[in-house]
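A student in our group prepared the protein record below, which I am reviewing. What it holds is a sequence and that sequence's fold in token form. My question to you is simply how this chain folds and whether the tokens agree. Do not assume that whoever made the record got everything right. I have pasted the whole thing underneath without changing anything:
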Amino acid sequence: MIPQVFVGEEIPHSEVWLTECIFRRGKHYLIEAPSGGGKSSLMAYIYGARKDYQGRLLFNKTSAADYSIDQWQEFRRRHIAYLPQELDLFPELTCIENIRLKNDLTGHVPEERINEWLERLGIAFRRDYPAGKMSIGQQQRLAIIRALCMPFDFILLDEPVSHLDGANNIIAAEIIAEEAARQGAGVISTSVGNPLLLHSAENLKL
């Protein structure tokens, strides 16, 4: 697989593009590349948000190109969580309202666990504060919690800790790893220089 905009160009050696790359449940993967290397594109391809690539993307040996709209909706609802780099928060809603907007649909995470995550990530005091008025680092922590509020086989995290310090990076990684382990899920995160500090992550280069 390769982004169509790269076709015809001489791209550097990659452990993902133009190779047979397999992601497995229960594993952690860190994909690193400089800006413009295709990290966000790869996440969007896997999530089905974009289709401007050449090659094949398979889920359990079934081509993503054969998925109907209904199949994609079911896939995203039950099997794959996604945190885009842009976060996609609702700025006029409070921190907890952004989280509940998703968790009320899925009913996946108990309120006590959400409160625990808010405390551990140091944003419990922003619980009832508009998301749009939170700092970008606080918004990233909020978006991580919201992304975890669903069942998933894989969670895709596009530069999820780019604005977090080392201490909050470690806490975020611990929470993500705990929830992934609870579900037997895989974690795929990207980085341009400040990676999610997951232990035993397999590093891949774009």
